[in-house]
Design brief:
The chain has 6 domains: 248 residues, BirA Bifunctional Protein, domain 2, CATH 3.30.930; 104 residues; 84 residues, no CATH class; 105 residues, Elongation Factor Tu (Ef-tu), domain 3, CATH 2.40.30.130; 153 residues, Threonyl-tRNA Synthetase, Chain A, domain 2, CATH 3.30.980.10; 121 residues, Diaminopimelate Epimerase, Chain A, domain 1, CATH 3.10.310. Helices cover 38% and strands 25% of the residues. The strands form 7 sheets. Strands 1, 2, 5, 6, 7, 8, 9, 10 and 11 form a 9-stranded mixed β-sheet that branches. Strands 14, 15, 16, 17, 18, 19, 20, 21 and 22 form a 9-stranded antiparallel β-sheet that branches. It is an alpha+beta fold and 871 residues long. The structure holds adenosine-5'-triphosphate and magnesium ion.
Length: 871
């Protein structure tokens, strides 16, 4: 069975059990400070488990793009070395939000595996949670145990401990006991030797977990306590690539059709074969795995970068490059060439891979090229280190410098050292690394206390589209302490007019005013698992009281103006440049807007002007906002709305329309395009290969900009003696200037000619050397010309010229080449000596050298002494 059909069959099966099929959430998470990447199917449903949002469907199924490279679930070091852990993988899942529980989950899982997929039940083992005697003090999961006993013989049920059978997403959040399903795909011969149950959870590559059924019933709080969730849920996750391995009768995920096209392409490019040597094969697995992670992430809008999620992606790509560099001998960028294969292979299920193929290719190629350069430079540095080293051990400090400053990977350092008979002080390196980690941890650490709950959050908590002020209660608050910002409070209100940061738009600022008149500044507003969190420095004296929540209106109006302008700009770019333009990020705030988009060349002045004119024409047209607040994703797209990749859309979406511009957007906008007043582009630049950035201003900022520009113009005019036509006046000045320059050049040439004749007459012959030292009124270039001209006309020449220019002294020395050779006279050495008279230094070549100094009074003394150097 092809992997595509395996995926489809899973979804269809649960659809037949009344589940609705939903799309994978983006792999990069934007609204959860505790998590950078989706690491399990349940992440996108966390708010349902916590009871923050009520789901539209209580049963759903999906395949979720996951990435396990950081935090609690980090498989990076295993990837490639084993055959069944990936960085990016698909997790098939079925979900019950307060609907069915253990019984259905267990029965359906079993039925699907053994009756639909027809896996031999004798190869399957299941596990149940045995309970724990730690602070959680949880008992054996007897309910699951009894259910499994009805299905499998007892000798295939395994009792698992907390590590294996109690699933937690992270340090906090929903969790619960689980039942895992493991499969034994060893040969009969092997099975006869060691029973499969002895190998479950023992890291055996052919006895692996394929499916985890989690029974969500607790929430882990910040203080480590467990609390019962308001309702019980089912969360299951099955590794898609592992399932393919089983159903396609393979012994490794990399032998399934999910990976073979990639591996074959790597074989072709590197002229090597898979299944050759351990190192070779590991490298091929690493590269075929990592290119998926990186490509999917770029398609989701997360480019490799220097910080946060982007840095994690960059490191994954670098790991792949490194394995290629060391084990497959690839010294040129090549990983980007796998992108078309991947897009073809997975594009049906994930269309973003096809629509963004070029971008993924470009970005990866560029990253590869730059990291390969780093590797080359690092190699040179490392060679020098070894050459200069007195012992055969390279210190941890030096290795760390190479790693930290030049990005040279430590395993490569240690490999090269070993090959050259050197060793690395690994302990020293670890110590340096730890020091650095401690430093950065200390700088970013944030600790959050538990929520103090005071009131309910209303169902429609955000009322900021219609109101900028509201009577509210504090629903909950907590204290957070960050090393960077110090102590802060996070406050959730019963309902709020404050817009939480999102969709590129910054969070609102404003105040909370108590009934007693106490004023608390709201410094920022953000969304966290669908809760709207207000950041304040202080807590009101009486948090239980009534409050007036008031948004800063000017700031909000300016932001709205920039947000609407961003939509118009998007439309303008697609009209002027073409529909290949896709939004790749935006930043909308009161002062300005920033818009990143895919386009492959720098925009011309003419294109920029067209874009500006397009937007300003829409502003002039007085187009009123048409807003659809509760429509569905499909309905909006049908009407021509533009949606963004990497954005998570819920059951109901909001569409913003200004004439022909229509986008799915949660941000705040002006009521009419004329409110924007004026749109002005202030910059166009490159962000990454294939991604351009436009910066622009509107409204009040645009007015200020125009005002300051016209002030500058006034100043120019007055400088031009109030010319009526300053452009013409400046052109005239420039012409005049050019003519004068030409005239001066001619005069100087004449002067030099005369001077040359004069000087020639003054040259004296001393000991067979034609010598002259003299102060002349020429600049450095003129002196050099003169000296070389004299040199062409005369042999055995030794000249010293001095001149004073702008209060500084300059000495120049010319010596004919034959004197340099025969008498070993050296202009460089002479000028260094003479330079002392003018308090300066200099140098050059044996036949010509100069010295500059700050003591012009010393010139005559220097000239007097020149003669002493004649040999
Ligand atoms: P393992 O012990 O094998 O690492 P896990 O306990 O970490 O698995 P879960 O967190 O329960 O796995 O995830 C659910 C399912 O997702 C697993 O049963 C497995 O099939 C799959 N899975 C987990 N991690 C990976 C990975 N890194 N690559 C591919 N599939 C994975
Ligand atoms: Mg794991």
């Amino acid at each position: 069975m092809k992997s595509q059909d395996i995926r489809k069959q899973f979804l269809e099966y649960f659809k037949s059990k009344s589940h609705s099929i939903v799309a994978s959430a983006p792999m990069v998470i934007k609204d959860d400070p505790t998590l950078m990447f989706t690491n399990a199917g349940m992440n996108q449903f966390k708010e349902y488990f916590l009871g923050n949002t009520v789901p539209k469907n209580s049963r759903v199924t999906d395949t979720q793009k996951c990435l396990r490279v950081s935090g609690k679930h980090n498989d990076l070091e295993e990837v490639g070395h084993d055959t069944y852990h990936h960085t990016m993988f698909e997790m098939l899942g079925n979900w019950s939000f307060g609907d069915y529980f253990k019984k259905e989950a267990i029965h359906w899982a079993w039925e699907l595996l053994t009756e639909v997929y027809k896996i031999n039940p004798e190869n399957l083992y299941v596990s149940v949670f045995e309970g724990s005697e730690d602070r959680d003090n949880l008992g054996l999961d007897t309910e699951a145990l009894e259910l499994w006993k009805e299905i499998v013989p007892e000798d295939r049920i395994i009792y698992g401990n907390k590590k294996d059978n109690f699933w937690e997403m992270g340090d906090q959040g929903p969790c619960g006991p689980c039942s895992e399903i493991h499969i034994d795909i060893r040969s009969d011969e092997e099975k006869a030797k060691v029973p499969g149950r002895d190998l479950v959870n023992m890291d055996h590559p052919l006895v692996v977990e394929i499916w985890n059924l989690v029974f969500m019933q607790y929430n882990r709080k910040a203080n480590g306590d467990l609390e019962e969730l308001p309702a019980k849920h089912i969360d299951t996750g099955m590794g898609f690539e592992r399932l393919c391995m089983v159903l396609q009768d393979k012994k490794s995920n990399y032998d399934t059709d999910v990976f073979t096209p990639l591996i074959q392409e790597i074989e072709k490019i590197t002229n090597s074969t898979y299944d050759k040597s351990d190192e070779n094969d590991i490298a091929m697995r690493v590269i075929s795995d990592h290119v998926r992670a990186v490509a999917f992430s770029i398609a989701d809008g997360q480019l490799p970068s220097n910080t946060g999620a982007g840095y994690v992606i960059r490191r994954i790509l670098r790991r792949a490059i490194r394995y290629g560099f060391t084990f497959l001998n690839t010294k040129e960028p090549f990983i980007h060439k796998l992108v078309p294969v991947l897009a073809k292979q997975m594009g049906n299920s994930f269309p973003e891979l096809q629509s963004q193929e070029k971008l993924m290719e470009n970005v990866i190629r560029e990253e590869e090229a730059s990291f390969l350069r780093t590797l080359e430079q690092g190699l040179v540095l490392l060679e020098n280190l070894m050459k200069d080293s007195e012992s055969k051990t390279i210190s941890g400090e030096k290795a760390f410098e190479l790693y930290d400053t030049f990005g040279f990977p430590i395993d490569l350092t240690s490999l090269i050292l070993r090959e050259n008979g050197f060793s690395l002080d690994e302990k020293g390196f670890e110590a340096e690394l730890k020091k650095q980690k401690d430093r950065s941890r200390a700088a970013t650490q944030v600790s959050a206390g538990d929520w103090v709950e005071l009131a309910e959050v209303e169902n429609e908590a955000f009322i900021g589209y219609d109101h900028l002020e509201a009577e509210v209660k504090i629903a909950r608050y907590r204290k957070v302490d960050s090393k960077k910002k110090g102590e802060m409070y996070q406050i959730v209100l019963s309902s709020t007019p404050f817009y939480p940061e999102g969709g590129g738009q910054v969070g609102d600022k404003g105040i909370l005013m108590s009934a007693e008149g106490e004023v608390i500044d709201v410094l920022d507003t953000k969304k966290e698992n669908n809760l709207i969190v207000h950041f304040t420095k202080d807590l009101p004296q009486n948090p239980q009281g009534d409050f007036q929540a008031i948004v800063n209106k000017t700031e909000r109006a300016n932001t709205a103006s920039n947000h609407t302008a961003t939509h118009l700009l998007h439309q303008a770019l697609r009209t002027v440049l073409g529909t290949h333009v896709e939004q790749k990020g935006s930043m909308v705030r009161g002062g300005y807007l920033r818009f990143d988009f895919s386009h492959f060349s720098k925009m011309t002045a003419e294109e920029l002007e067209k874009v500006e004119n397009f937007v300003n024409a829409r502003i002039k047209e007085n187009i009123a906002l048409e807003e659809q607040r509760n429509t569905t994703y499909d309905a909006a797209l049908e009407q021509g709305a533009i949606a963004l990749f990497g954005e998570k859309y819920g059951d109901s979406v909001r569409a913003i329309k200004f004439g022909d511009s229509m986008e799915l957007c949660g941000g705040t906008h002006v009521q009419n395009t004329s409110d924007i007043w004026y749109f002005k582009v202030t910059g166009e630049s490159a962000v990454a290969s294939g991604i351009r950035r436009i910066e622009a201003i509107t409204g009040e900022e645009a007015r200020k900009h125009l005002e300051s520009q016209s002030a500058v113009l006034e100043e120019i005019k007055s400088g031009l003696k109030n010319a009526k036509d300053p452009v013409k006046a400046i052109n005239n000045l420039q012409d005049e200037n050019a003519a004068l320059k030409k005239q001066i050049e001619g005069l100087l040439r004449d002067k030099a000619k005369n001077l040359k004749a004069e000087l020639k007459a003054e040259i004296k012959n001393i000991n067979g050397v034609n010598f002259l030292s003299k102060e002349v009124d020429l600049d450095a270039g003129g002196i050099k010309d003169l000296a070389f001209q004299l040199g062409d006309e005369m042999e055995d020449l030794y000249l010293i010229f001095g001149t004073e220019q702008n209060g500084k002294a300059l000495l120049s020395c010319y010596i004919s080449k034959n004197l340099v050779a025969e008498k070993e006279m050296n202009a460089g050495k002479i000028i260094r000596e003479l330079g002392k008279f003018i308090q300066g230094g200099g140098g050059g070549q044996p036949f010509f050298a100069t010295a500059g100094g700050k003591k012009p009074e010393g010139i005559s003394e220097a000239l007097k002494n020149a003669e002493t150097f004649i040999k």
